[in-house]
């Protein structure tokens, strides 16, 4: 459904002569609906962990989590779903907002799910040796359970890790170094109006804190960025001199906006810049239960406060370039129309469900003095089609055309090459797919020479 809606929008734009190059890069994933972003910086890349809203949802219907990564904040590689409800044998539903942290050479994914035995929300922990998984259940049972949601984990400079979560309350525990157990009692953080702002019209919840805490530290100051005052939510924040408080409410980070009555924040520093992740309902068919993750670059004020950040369609500027002379996964995308991704038989993911006129945009491709050839790994159970290499827009300068032949199956792969001319400097590359009716072919990876 989502791919069809995006295709319709593209046709409408073409019909009213809106140049395709005007397509922006927020939301950053267009192939599925994503929600509840949790970014992690690791080894020169940002790994973005999200929930997955099912198409046509009328509730928070979420069965799996997904992961994407980027080295430049605009071209995002889809790594698929390395963890789902079935990872936890004791969970029955609700793969909701979580977060991944790295420690001990492993990656720990803290998530809220419904405990089948109790019917309550509980916090589970997945573990993997790679940031892209696969993740397995670390302990075979809930780490903590009190019916509340939205875990976030912060590791302080002294090595002490803290797990926070909660709606309607805000809780924390001190995690042990193994990251899968804790010492001491589950402690409730006092939700005071001085600490978390004043809510009006709801005596049961006098503060603005709603859910979705994100705790981080900068220059010795602790920040708790949270979803505030449902519904519709905005993003507020508080600061403290220590990881458990006392907290002081500092104001609004992102006002209520964006066609989703919830929001959920993640904050990181990467390659010298600060980034704020959130979700909205900006994709076609989007809304409160079909959300999409987006990102903005921001700068802290001189006094350490966070400025007000507004949702944009432009998103964060590119932080680096993309090297076309090494293998690039076809599912590395700045913007796409029509296509979907799926598991590939050779491992990883591939781009599929390609129709005539669909395209993928890859931003800031550093061609340098010029490319002379293009190679791609393709498969087709039908007659195949063509990959047009366009520069600047889907209808921009044609730098080359590669034919993707029939191979006898959607996972029966062959490698094709074609000559290229005019691809120099740093350009936005559009892989435009053309051919007959129906699905044309799949693409696993590509590379220029």
If you average the pLDDT, what whole number results?
95
**How many DSSP E strands?**
34
Radius of gyration: 23 Å
Cα end-to-end separation: 36 Å
Going by CATH, the homologous superfamily of the largest domain would be Glycosyl hydrolase domain, family 43
Percentage of residues in DSSP E strands: over 45%
Q: Helical content, roughly?
A: under 10%
Name of the CATH class of the largest domain: Mainly Beta
What are the low-pLDDT stretches, counting only 5+ consecutive residues below 50?
8-23
Describe the biggest sheet?
6 strands, antiparallel
- Overall geometry: globular
- Output the CATH topology of the largest domain: Tachylectin-2, Chain A
Structural write-up:
It is built from two helices and 34 strands. With 449 residues, the chain is mainly β. The chain folds into two domains: 275 residues, Tachylectin-2, Chain A; 121 residues, Jelly Rolls (Sandwich), CATH 2.60.120. The strands form eight sheets. Strands 1, 2, 3, 4, 5 and 24 form a six-stranded antiparallel beta sheet that branches. Strands 6, 7, 8, 9, 10 and 11 form a six-stranded antiparallel beta sheet that branches. A hairpin with a 5-residue loop joins strand 26 and strand 27. The two termini are 36 Å apart. Keywords: Carbohydrate metabolism, Glycosidase, Hydrolase, Polysaccharide degradation, Signal, Xylan degradation. Belongs to the glycosyl hydrolase 43 family. This is Putative glycosyl hydrolase.
How is the secondary structure organized here?
Blueprint: H1 2-15, E1 33-42, E2 45-53, E3 64-70, E4 76-78, E5 83-84, E6 91-93, E7 99-103, E8 106-115, E9 121-128, E10 136-137, E11 144-145, E12 152-155, E13 161-165, E14 171-175, E15 182-188, H2 193-196, E16 209-218, E17 221-228, E18 234-240, E19 248-254, E20 266-270, E21 273-280, E22 292-298, E23 328-329, E24 332-333, E25 335-337, E26 340-343, E27 349-352, E28 359-368, E29 373-380, E30 385-391, E31 397-404, E32 409-419, E33 425-434, E34 442-448
Antiparallel strand pairs: 1-2, 2-3, 3-4, 3-5, 4-24, 6-8, 7-8, 8-9, 9-10, 9-11, 12-13, 13-14, 14-15, 16-17, 17-18, 18-19, 20-21, 21-22, 23-34, 25-28, 26-27, 28-33, 29-32, 29-34, 30-31, 30-33
């Amino acid at each position: 459904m989502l791919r069809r809606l995006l295709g319709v929008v593209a046709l409408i734009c073409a019909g009213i002569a809106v140049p395709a190059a005007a397509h922006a890069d927020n939301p950053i994933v267009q192939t599925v609906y994503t929600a509840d972003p949790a970014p992690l910086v690791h080894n020169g890349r940002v790994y973005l962990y999200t929930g997955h809203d099912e198409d046509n949802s009328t509730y928070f219907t979420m069965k799996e989590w997904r992961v994407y990564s980027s080295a430049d904040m605009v071209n995002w590689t889809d790594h698929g779903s390395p963890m789902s409800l079935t990872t936890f044998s004791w969970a029955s539903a609700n793969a909701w907002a979580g977060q991944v942290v790295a420690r001990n050479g492993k990656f720990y994914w803290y998530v809220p799910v419904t405990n089948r035995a109790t019917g309550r929300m509980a916090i589970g922990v997945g573990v993997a040796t790679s940031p892209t998984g696969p993740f397995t259940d670390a302990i075979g049972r809930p780490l903590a359970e009190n019916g509340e949601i939205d875990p976030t984990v912060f590791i302080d400079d002294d090595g002490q890790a803290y797990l926070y979560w909660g709606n309607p309350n805000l809780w924390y525990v001190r995690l042990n170094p193994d990251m899968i157990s804790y010492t001491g009692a589950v402690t409730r953080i006092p939700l005071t109006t001085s600490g978390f702002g004043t809510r009006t019209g709801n005596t049961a919840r006098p503060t603005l804190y709603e859910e979705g805490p994100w705790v981080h530290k900068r220059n010795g100051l602790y920040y708790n960025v949270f979803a505030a005052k449902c519904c519709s939510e905005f993003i507020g924040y508080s600061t403290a001199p220590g990881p458990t408080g006392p907290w002081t409410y500092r104001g609004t980070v992102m006002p209520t906006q964006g066609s989703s009555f919830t929001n959920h924040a993640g904050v990181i520093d990467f390659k010298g810049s600060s980034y704020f992740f959130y979700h909205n309902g900006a994709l076609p068919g989007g809304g409160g239960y079909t959300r999409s993750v987006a990102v903005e670059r921001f700068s802290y004020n001189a006094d350490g406060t966070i400025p007000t950040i507004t949702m944009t369609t432009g998103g964060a500027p590119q932080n680096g370039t993309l090297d076309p002379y090494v293998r690039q996964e076809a599912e590395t995308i700045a913007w796409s129309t029509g296509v979907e991704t799926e598991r590939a038989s050779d491992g990883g993911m591939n781009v599929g469900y390609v129709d005539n006129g669909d395209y993928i945009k890859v931003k800031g491709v550093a061609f340098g003095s010029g490319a002379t050839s293009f190679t791609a790994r393709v498969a087709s159970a039908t007659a195949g089609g063509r990959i047009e290499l366009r520069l600047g827009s889907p209808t921009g300068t044609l730098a080359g055309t590669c034919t993707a032949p029939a191979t006898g199956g959607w996972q029966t792969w062959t490698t094709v090459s074609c000559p290229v001319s005019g691809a120099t400097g740093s350009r936005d590359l559009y892989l435009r797919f053309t051919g007959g009716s129906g699905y044309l072919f799949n693409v696993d990876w590509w590379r220029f020479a």
